[in-house]
Amino acid sequence: MCGVEGCNKPAERSFNIKQVSKTSLSLKDPSARQIHLCKEHYKEFKKETKTDRSLDQVY
C-alpha cells in the first residue's frame, strides 16, 4: 500500500524516509524507515526531486 496520507493504491517503489520527507507529500507514518509509493505519487516524487537527483549524479 502507498504510504501517502489518503492513498490506498498498491505500492510500486519504496524510498528512504529522508528522501521522501524533503517533498510536499504528507505521509501516513512519518516515523517509518521506508516509504512505499504508488505509481502516481512516485511520479510526483520524481518531479519534486529532479534537481536534487541531477546534482547527485554530477558528484
Question: Which features does this protein show?
Answer:
alpha+beta; 3 helices; about 60 residues
Roughly how many Å is the radius of gyration?
A: 11 Å
Note the total helix count: 3
Number of strands: 2
Strand arrangement, major sheet = 1-2
Span of the ends, CA to CA: 33 Å
Residue-averaged pLDDT: 91
Based on helices, strands and strand pairing, what is the structural class?
Answer: alpha+beta
Strand content: 5-15%
Assembly level: single chain
Order of helices and strands: EHEHH
Catalogue the unreliable spans.
Answer: none
Overall shape: globular
What level of helicity do the residues show? 25-40%
Total domains:
1
- Tell me about the biggest sheet? 2 strands, antiparallel
Structure overview:
With 59 residues, the protein is α+β, with helices and mostly antiparallel strands. It has one domain (13-58). It has three helices and two strands, in the order βαβαα. It has helices spanning 17-20, 39-48, 50-58; strands at 13-16, 34-37. A two-stranded antiparallel ribbon has the order 1-2. The protein is globular and about 35 Å long. The termini are far apart. The relative contact order is 0.25. The model has no long low-confidence stretch (mean pLDDT 91).
Question: Short description, anyone?
Answer:
The chain has 59 residues and is an alpha+beta fold.
Helix-strand blueprint:
Blueprint (H helix, E strand, L loop, with lengths): L12 E4 H4 L13 E4 L1 H10 L1 H9 L1
Antiparallel strand pairs: 1-2
